[in-house]
Amino acid sequence: MAVLLHVCVLACLILPGFAVAREVREQHVQTVLDAVDAVCGLPELTGLAAQSAIPGSWLISEKHRPNIARPRVISIRLVMADRSELEIERRQHNGQLRQFRASLWLDHGNGPEPYLLAIADGGCNVRSGREIRSAGDAWQYLDQLDGDLTTVRWTETLQAPWPGGVDKGGVRVGFIDSGLAYDLPVFREQLARGADKQPLGFDYWDMDPWPYDGDVSRGRFLPIRHGTAVASIFVREAPDAAIVPYRYPRPDMARLGDTVARAAGDGVRILAMPLGSNKKSEWAAFEAALDAFDVLAIVSAGNNGRDIDKNPVYPAALSSDRILTVTSADEFGRLAEGSNWGQTHVDVMVPAENVQIVDFRGASGVASGSSYAVPRVAALAARLLAERPELTAIELKNSILRLAKPSPFERDGVLSTGWIPNPLDP
């Protein structure tokens, strides 16, 4: 199937209900390349200057970050006569161009959707590109392109239908993260399933049934993959447990309340949450929902190299009894460089540096940080709950805390409880 898809990108763009001929695609490519040629070299980039340089365009918006006086990023949005939109982005330092991006967004009746991106260097030479393709209701791909915006370097999956398989049973653990590459073989047989034999889980970012791995806060063309690597540690250390993936609701964090409620309805007893932010207000719905259900949330302390008692990260610094906050240590029990700490709000640390992971492509690698402490403790919790399913969330938390002990190589004031040298052998 992958070979056919690579051939198709040169002949047609597949969208739900649409087939775009090669000639039309070539026109789209030319539109983007012409935008780079027309705008990238302007001595002063403004929305009106971009509108004047690109025939048939009309200015929609212009933004300067962090401010108009000394912008590091200038973003301009233009609408074209065919209802498509062009987004122009200039990235600079002290006024000097570092990178230039031009992207085309197509409107097939439901509003503009990202389609094609060109990325140019400081000399306005297009070095690479991205193309988003859809096939059917669930399949979506991201092609990495050469500077000609036609030659495909490689293809990533952005969204996929649920795989077939059988629910093996076991303790259900929900992962609230950037999603999961659930079509990889390492996960297929550890997905919890409902009565209809379909896997449980939901995408609270896009509000659709497929929580595929991809944090697109940097833009739809540049997804960050995090959830798959984290979850791969869990399925290795808790092979008898079942995983339920939920893609976290970055566009509206109030949806976290619904996420917790759905997880509880799906039979989840443990939530693994290797994520956080600095805004307590974003976690109000989550905290209220967590206190309403008998679910233990295992959360990461973060990797800002700071004391979260003094400079909080949430949800790690929330006061709920149903939160267990973890951070990363080295193999000797020393706080890992860059990992957060806190005598009040950080409960335990476990070795989570240079841990073996599987990434969203299915490739092996290593990763470090408090995010990767979360699946190790979640796997420990799942094994303990399998032995004693009658435990409440708070009783389960206390069972884990009793396994922690002071580290002989770490100063006081780092943790509220201690470290667990080997979560696989407490």
Features:
eight-stranded parallel sheet, globular, 21% helix, 20 strands, 426 residues, eight-stranded antiparallel sheet, alpha/beta, Rossmann fold, 2 domains
Written account of the structure:
The structure is a single chain. This protein is an alpha/beta fold and 426 residues long. It has two domains: 2-158; 172-419, Peptidase S8/S53 domain (Rossmann fold). The two termini are 45 Å apart. It contains nine helices and 20 strands. The protein is globular, with a radius of gyration of 24 Å. An eight-stranded antiparallel β-sheet has the order 3-4-5-6-7-8-9-10, with helices on one face. An eight-stranded parallel β-sheet has the order 12-13-11-14-15-16-17-20, with helices on both faces. α5 packs parallel to α8, α6 packs parallel to α7 (284-290) and α8 (373-387) crosses α9. The active site is at residues 177, 226, 371. GO terms for molecular function: serine-type endopeptidase activity. InterPro entries: Peptidase_S8/S53_dom, Peptidase_S8/S53_dom_sf, Peptidase_S8_Asp-AS, Peptidase_S8_subtilisin-like. Residues 170-404 form the Peptidase S8/S53 domain.
